[in-house]
Specification:
By secondary structure, this protein is α+β, with helices and mostly antiparallel strands. Helix content is about 55%, strand content about 5%.
């Protein structure tokens, strides 16, 4: 199997995670931002991740890919969500998180942004969705304050978390994306969780790019 991805993308992170969690070999191909032709040829529209299955067909939608790969060998490892509080937390944090990590992604060091044209295509795409990215960066202090209570709540949610389930496929990609935000104070439980999931999933965090 082969994954077509963006390195920065939290949805692509979901698909990458299941390969690492199951210790399966993974071939990836990074698609340049602005490349509409490749994903459209594979699944009819510009969206990633895309999985090329063993039979040569392709599928999109990150969670569909996760479940396909998990069940492919007849030995699934993911249980269904055990904590509705995680989903509630995710839903509350996602809109704030986007405003923090999106402008930093456009300035990041990712293979899909390897050319000036690709970086410009990505920036234009995100400006259409979020408006002035420089203004979002300038709003960082306010956004960090909004995140503080959410991160404190996350500490209690992670305190006794052990089994890996579908909540982790939501939670880790979000926290990984936030790891590119300099000055964001993750608690001890969140840091431990992020480090452990990075190791188990073989999808590295982005602290080295924090800005």
């Amino acid at each position: 199997m082969k994954l077509y991805i963006y390195e920065h993308c939290p949805f692509c992170c979901r698909a990458r995670m299941i390969f690492g969690l199951k210790q399966l070999p993974l071939e990836t191909e990074v698609i340049l931002e602005g490349d509409v032709e490749t994903p459209t040829r594979l699944i009819g529209r510009k969206v990633l991740p895309i999985l090329r299955k063993d039979d040569g067909t392709h599928m999109g939608e990150s969670m569909d890919i996760v479940h396909h790969v998990d069940r492919h060998d007849g030995a699934p490892i993911l249980t269904i969500s055990s904590s509705p509080q995680i989903q509630t937390w995710y839903d509350a944090v996602w809109p704030i998180a986007l405003k923090l990590f999106i402008p930093r992604f456009t300035n990041g060091y990712f293979s899909e942004l390897a050319t000036p044209q690709a970086r410009q295509a990505y920036r234009l795409r995100e400006e259409q969705a979020f408006g002035d990215l420089d203004a979002l960066l300038a709003a960082t202090p306010v956004l960090l304050v909004k995140m503080e209570d959410h991160l404190q709540l996350l500490e209690s949610l992670l305190m006794h978390r052990e089994a890996i389930d579908t909540d982790d496929i939501l939670l880790y990609p979000l926290l990984r994306s936030l790891s590119i935000v300099d000055g964001l104070a993750f608690g001890a439980n969140a840091r431990s969780y992020m480090t452990n999931m990075a190791f188990l999933s073989n999808v590295p965090l982005l602290f080295d790019q924090a800005a």
